[in-house]
Specification:
single chain; 179 residues; alpha+beta; 6 helices; 30% helix; globular
């Protein structure tokens, strides 16, 4: 029986978060360097994305288009960043994942809808994990506190959870990336 993504997206959010936290060790956000000063003081704030589907807007209301996109560590794909390089890479441990998370409608939403109509998943959580793993993106509707963020430095390895905390890294040590 196909999953009804629109009715589930809002009502099963705590289940989705619990499943994501259990499956993925952490999450990464890539952002242009010019955003970093405000992130250091305010954290990652949801920002408007223009392609919010009307069905999602009905579920979440007026701020439905304001999200923070996150890549689940270990997902199959890494979607491209938005904005202009250079980019910095931020990470958070799964326990720090905000409460209000869901599937990413800003990226390949038609794919998500198609998968939901053909899904053999027995429950919403299983479906969310499958889509997050396949597409490499989820969204948070909540701010992410700067105190929980880690940042990739010039000398950091590829393991985001080993990166130092954002507050401990001076600007001169930042790792800057084209993607």
């Amino acid at each position: 029986m196909p999953l009804d993504v629109y009715s589930l997206i809002n009502t099963k959010m705590s289940d989705a978060r619990a499943a994501l936290v259990a499956r993925f060790p952490g999450f990464v956000h890539k952002t242009p360097l010019n955003n970093l000063a405000s992130i250091r003081t305010q954290g990652l704030l949801p920002s408007a994305v223009s392609s919010c589907p009307p069905e999602v807007r009905r579920q979440f209301g007026g701020n439905a288009d304001k999200v923070v996109c996150l890549w689940p560590i270990g997902a199959d794909l890494k979607p491209s960043s938005s904005g202009d390089p250079p980019y910095v890479h931020l990470a958070l441990e799964s326990a720090q994942l905000p409460k209000t998370v869901s599937l990413d409608w800003s990226y390949a939403w038609d794919f998500v809808l198609d998968r939901s109509s053909r899904s053999e998943a027995s429950d919403w959580s299983e479906f969310v994990i499958k889509i997050a793993k396949d597409l490499g993106s989820i969204v948070s509707y909540d701010k992410i506190d700067p105190r929980v963020l880690k940042i990739r430095t010039k000398s950091s390895n590829d393991s985001p959870l080993s990166w130092p905390t954002l507050a401990d890294v001076p600007h001169s040590d930042l790792g800057l990336f084209d993607e």
